[in-house]
């Protein structure tokens, strides 16, 4: 009776057969794919609508930028100009829930050829 093979899965301490684990994963993925095809698309909630324009802003009435406007911004200040265009102002907090002033992270370039984890010379 000891020599008959067991139909039970591997004992708790023994490693699982990789082929059977892969087969189980494939079966679960196929079952999940079948279930997603049977269910209507879009999930269970109502559709979400996103407004394309803010209700208090009419883009058609705003003046269009000219090439001179773009040339007036130095290349080194382009990011700052973008922030200003998005409503940011010096000394003003950011965020809707917890508006606070946050110190920016300064970029410190590494010496040439040194990547992540390398110690500076």
TrEMBL record:
GO MF term set: nucleic acid binding
All copies of domain G-patch, residue ranges: 75-121
Main localization (coarse): nucleus
Gene Ontology cellular-component terms listed: spliceosomal complex
InterPro entries: G_patch_dom, Spp2-like, Spp2/MOS2_G-patch
Pfam families for this protein: G-patch_2
Comp. bias intervals (Gly residues): 112-121
Matching SMART domains: G_patch (SM00443)
PANTHER family for the chain: G PATCH AND KOW-CONTAINING, G-PATCH DOMAIN AND KOW MOTIFS-CONTAINING PROTEIN
Name this polypeptide is given: G-patch domain and KOW motifs-containing protein
Organism annotation: Pardalotus punctatus (spotted pardalote)
Taxonomic lineage: Eukaryota, Metazoa, Chordata, Craniata, Vertebrata
């Amino acid at each position: 009776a000891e020599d008959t093979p067991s139909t039970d899965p591997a004992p708790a301490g023994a490693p699982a057969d990789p082929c059977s684990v892969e087969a189980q994963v494939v079966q679960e993925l196929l079952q999940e794919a079948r279930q997603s095809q049977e269910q209507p698309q879009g999930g269970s909630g109502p559709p979400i609508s996103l407004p394309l324009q803010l209700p208090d802003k009419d883009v058609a009435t705003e003046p269009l930028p000219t090439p001179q406007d773009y040339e007036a911004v130095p290349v080194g200040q382009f990011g700052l100009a973008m922030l200003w265009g998005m409503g940011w102002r010096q000394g003003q907090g950011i965020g809707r829930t917890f508006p606070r002033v946050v110190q920016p992270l300064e970029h410190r370039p590494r010496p040439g050829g040194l990547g992540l984890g390398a110690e500076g010379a």
